[in-house]
Amino acid sequence: MPDYLSRSPVDDAEEDPDETTHLISKSTQTDILYNNENSPIIASVETRAMKFRNKTLHDISNTTELTSDSLNTSTEENCTTSFSIEELIQAQQNDNYAKNILNNIKKYKNYIVKYNLLIRRLNHPAPYVPQGDLRRTILQIYHDTAANGAHFGRNKTLHKIKQRYFWPSMYKDIENYIKSCILCTQFNPHRQKTPAMDFHGPITPTSQRGNKYIISLTDVLSKFAVTKAVRDNTAQTAVQFLKEDITSKFGTPRCILTDNGTHFTSTLMNELIKQIGATHLYSTLHHSQTNGQVERYNSTMNAKIAALSNLNKTNWDDQLSFVTFNYNASIHSSTKQIPF
User: Fold this and answer.
1) Does the pTM of the predicted model rise above 0.85?
2) CATH no. of 195-328
3) 292-302: per-residue pLDDT in tens?
């Protein structure tokens, strides 16, 4: 489908009168068979600038005529109201942000004016779209319609739109529009990862406060970790940690992944998970890699705590909060993001 706004404008080119020539050719015998009037055929050669200007208005007027006819379907959500280049120019002239730039165009090096259209200088120069109905129409076209959007995600939708249009809050607007799409919410698969909980220990030596274990919960998606030094690894301790240190501070998780230890398979733990409405998932028996996020964090934590503890290593629980904080505040090797 032709789309001026999907192509980079050519450089300004002045018309050269010498390039506009007229060619006169006589009719051939084949022409005479279909045309009794033996009149000459006259064709003119267009310069690049003339061709670009003539094609621009024709292409732009057809750019947004995106209806369900393109796929021979009558689905109502695929019918989108189009807008013309004249409407875009008029919207720019009524927009305070655009008017300020148009009136002071020499001060704004990132913009140019071409055929009365305010255009942003980018790798793919694109016209500025004022806030309002035109932006909503563009979002509908490049996300909702079958021919141009097909309800793909933020990055794909952003790539399509920024090749053709520009406005300052484009990234955020596209993200919010897709988040509010009911069909996407209903049919897209949820890629949310399950937080994993585990005990680590017994740790030797026992700390001065009598703590021998560390219980932790790691968000598998963000790698964010919550830890606590505890005296034992009983079901009561696990339930207390889940209630006081997780649910009351961060909210109720949808799922929790644990190993098959009795402290996690107990009736007390199952009752709590049932009360908060979560789903309890168990890692494969004798295969701790299923719960490997916590296992990897535990190995990292051991070395850091040992480096910060006193000579007797009896204050390791005092260092636990510092180690956890710095872990959460540092870039993770797999996500290249900070868990916080």
Assistant:
1) no
2) 3.30.420.10
3) 556 677 777 88
